[in-house]
Specification:
Layout lengths: L6 E3 L5 H8 L3 E3 L3 H4 L6 E4 L6 H10 L3 E5 L21 H21 L5 E4 L1 H4 L1 H13 L3 E9 L11 H4 L3 H24 L5 E9 L23 E8 L4 E7 L7 E8 L3 E7 L5 E4 L19 E4 L4 H4 L2 H14 L7 H20 L3 E2 L1
């Protein structure tokens, strides 16, 4: 079966050039034109989170399968509140609104059961996480603790600074990755052992650490949070009494940190996706390296560097798309589905409630 990238919808002025470079036939500024194309089977939503809810609804109702980037959704607006003040809305109110919208999407998917929803969480499909899942299925071990982190020096996207566009700060943008991986691995464990495991409670601590710095001192940090956090520390307690701790920073220099550590009653699995030492290089200067890619978010190419080899595979992007396409062809359920997307956002907003209220948030 031939798979074709049939169209692209973008408000970017370079969309035409992009489509021409990759041989994409249809280019439009309105994504609804893609939904009208009967030759298109799958819509891949790669927009800021503020657009996800409406685009998912429109795409499912148009009879399309949907791939949606993370996070699934968030809290973005309230009547009478200016966009620049959305981050000041009660997090409890946010939690209720967001879970209500996710319930609405869940019911929509039930009514359109022939349409697949794919949660585009690449951490789930990273070879290291997939190997860990394989071992857990084989051994039936009990996961006692999980540690996860995604941190870096800040997003290039200006909208990342605003709650009204991103639905939160470092935790929902970066922390969602290790959080989803932890939730996924606990469900792998539960199925292997014939158990039912849910998230019982969450404790969150959010901060804007760079507020103490001058603009000169922040020169190597890209993030400039307006009403969102730049550092999150979150602890999950599962219904079986086990734990997971997730860290996400938007102010950590030195490139991306993508880590998952799993501790069971009979094993330890350290999944160091980035940085890793598969290929290390040293340079005294950056001359002639302007167009040579090293790794994501790194500030310099001098000194010792950990270069990412086969990044699209190691980060899980290839495995992710392979699973989604096979699900469309064979009609099976993806490993990263709506249930995982929903649980991730529920925990994120539970953590925001906990941080604001200064106490454990119970589900």
């Amino acid at each position: 079966m031939e798979i074709v990238l049939a169209g692209v919808a973008s408000v970017d002025e370079e969309a035409e050039a992009f489509a021409k470079e990759y041989g994409i036939g249809q280019v439009t500024r309105d994504y609804r034109r893609l939904l009208e194309n009967p030759d298109i089977d799958v819509i891949d939503i790669c927009t800021p989170p503020v657009c996800h809810f409406s685009m998912i609804k429109d795409s499912i109702e148009a009879g399309k399968h949907v791939i949606c980037e993370k996070p699934l959704t968030g809290f973005f607006e309230k009547e009478g509140v200016f966009p620049e003040h959305i981050g000041q809305v009660s997090k409890r109110e946010m939690f209720e609104k967001v879970t209500g919208e996710m319930d609405e999407l869940q019911q929509l998917l039930k009514r359109h059961e022939r349409q697949h929803f794919f949660y585009s969480e690449n951490f789930v499909y990273a070879p290291a996480v997939q190997k860990c899942a394989e071992i857990l299925r084989a051994k039936g071990s009990k996961i006692l603790s999980i540690k996860g982190e995604e941190s870096h020096g800040g997003s290039h996207a200006p909208h990342a600074a605003f709650w009204s566009a991103s639905g939160g700060g470092s935790f929902i943008r970066q922390g969602c990755h290790p959080l989803s991986a932890a939730l996924y691995l606990k469900q792998v464990e539960a199925k292997a052992r014939g158990e039912a495991i849910t998230v019982a409670s969450v404790i969150g601590d959010m901060a804007v650490t760079q507020a103490c710095l001058s603009e000169e001192e922040r020169r190597y940090i890209r993030s400039r949070p307006h009403d969102v956090e730049d550092l999150a520390n979150v602890i999950l307690t599962f219904s079986d009494g086990t734990k997971a701790s997730i860290v996400s920073g938007d102010m950590i220099v030195g490139g991306v940190r993508n880590l998952i550590e799993v501790f069971t009653n009979e094993g330890v699995y350290l999944q160091n996706m980035a940085p890793n030492n598969g290929f290390c290089a040293y340079h005294v200067d950056e001359q002639n390296l302007e167009n040579v890619y090293f790794t994501e978010k790194v500030e310099t190419k001098t000194g010792w560097q950990s270069l990412y080899i086969n990044e699209e595979i190691a980060r899980g992007y290839v495995g992710e798309l392979r699973d989604f396409v096979e699900c469309v062809i064979w009609g099976r359920r993806p490993q990263s589905d709506f249930a995982l997307a929903r649980e991730t956002v529920k925990v994120v907003y539970g953590a925001y409630c906990s941080a604001e209220e200064g106490r454990r948030f119970d589900f």
